[in-house]
Specification:
Chain lengths: 276, 125
């Protein structure tokens, strides 16, 4: 069975009391959520030293909200799971909480927020958990109502786990249709574990997308790759295979093991001439 | 639910509702929580608020004493006013009660300070 939580149950049932408890006790989950929120805040590009009103979509137990508080902002959180919101109450977060389904639209008046963040929530919208759910329609309703509730020049940053390319296409196309500019920033695209997708949406005019992390290595030519590999081998202390150094190393090892070995001469490991 | 949230919250997601603002508050339990005073945030947020709605909401739950009905022009220099606004916006919280949509009359319950804005299938646009 698939390990993705979205495939197991609708969010309001998946995040039950047991699952919600993990978000207060498991330090690994807490660390990861905090890191991702920090990165969201970097991408959000809020003005320095001003406290803003932010919307946290899928705030859950308020782990991301705690990071927002550390940055000095006030936040209002939306979540569909009552158990997760109960945990947020227990943790006594400063933000205010609202129980709502983002696919039904963001229930706030126009121009309310200076920015929106969302950590690991958007992928839930790709699923149809009820007969009446149409993912495309829900995504569009979510983005269009979010666009209205943001102030001009505000940004919205979503960290999410898309399953495949078509989900990425779907989410960006629906966001563009709702009036946003922007796109997906992929941090550490060459790593299986550290790879993270951030959907960065802008309301005020097209600006260049921020640079993703872990993509500095722009020169991907073969020679450089091999040079790197050799450097790695040397660092590990073993010479490259089929070279004279490797052969001498091997003979030395055999001598130490007490096996019969020919002496090293100037002919050892030398290339045969073409006549042979 | 703090009154700053109430000032932003609408029921426009309901089918057939156009603005759904402001929601009427009926509170059965109100709590006052101390929150750190941040004058910059309050003066930055005031232009975004619908002050009339805030005053009426505060009045309906009995916390409007001393709060002016209209905002002065240079409110950001009036520390006393900012403190009062801070108290009403961030410290007064509706714990139990319900919100009522002005157009459809639909009620949204507030439990443990969390308004429940979930809709049924038939109510979604």
């Amino acid at each position: 069975m698939s390990k993705r939580p979205e495939h197991q149950a609708p969010p309001e049932f998946f995040y039950n009391e047991d699952e919600a408890r993990k978000y207060t006790q498991n330090s690994r989950i807490i660390d990861i959520q905090a890191q991702m929120t920090e990165r969201c805040m970097e991408l959000l590009l809020l003005p320095d030293d001003t406290s803003c009103l932010l919307l946290d979509i899928g705030c859950g137990s308020g782990l991301s909200g705690t990071v927002l508080e550390e940055w000095g902002h006030m936040w209002i959180g939306l979540d569909i799971s009552p158990s997760m919101l109960d945990v947020a109450l227990e943790r006594e977060t400063e933000g205010d909480l609202v129980l709502a389904d983002m696919g039904e639209g963001v229930p706030f008046k126009a121009g309310s927020f200076d920015g929106a963040v969302s950590v690991s929530a958007l992928q839930w919208l790709f699923n149809a958990d009820k007969k009446s759910h149409q993912p495309v329609k829900r995504l569009y309703k979510f983005f269009s109502s979010l666009y209205a509730s943001l102030s001009r020049s505000a940004r919205a940053v979503f960290q999410f786990y898309p399953e495949n390319e078509s989900q990425l296409d779907l989410v960006t196309s629906q966001a563009m249709k709702a009036g946003f500019y922007g796109g997906v920033v992929v941090d550490f695209p060459n790593s299986a574990k550290a790879k993270k997708f951030f959907l960065v949406l802008m309301t005020g005019g097209a600006a260049p997308l921020p640079q993703a992390l872990g993509t500095e290595e722009s020169d991907n030519s073969l020679q450089i790759k091999y040079a790197k590999r050799e450097a790695c081998k040397a660092a590990r202390g073993k010479p490259l295979k089929n070279t004279r150094a490797w052969l001498l190393d091997k003979k030395e090892r055999r001598r130490k093991q007490g096996k019969e070995t020919k002496p090293d001469t100037k002919y050892t490991g030398r290339k045969r001439s073409g006549r042979f | 639910m703090k009154l700053i949230t109430h000032n932003m919250l609408t029921s426009k997601c309901l089918k057939g509702v156009l603005t759904g603002y402001p929601l009427a508050i009926k509170a059965t339990n109100i709590k006052v929580n101390e929150v750190d005073f941040n004058p910059d945030f309050i003066s930055r947020i005031i232009p975004k608020l619908d002050w009339e709605v805030l005053w009426k909401a505060a009045d309906s739950i009995g916390h409007s004493e001393g709060l002016p009905q209209t905002i002065e022009r240079n409110y950001d220099e009036d520390k006393e006013f900012l403190k009062k606004a801070h108290r009403v916006l961030l410290e007064v919280e509706v714990e139990e009660g319900y919100l009522t949509c002005p157009e459809s009359g639909r009620q949204f319950p507030i439990t443990k300070g969390i308004p429940n804005m979930l809709l049924t299938e038939a109510e979604v646009q």
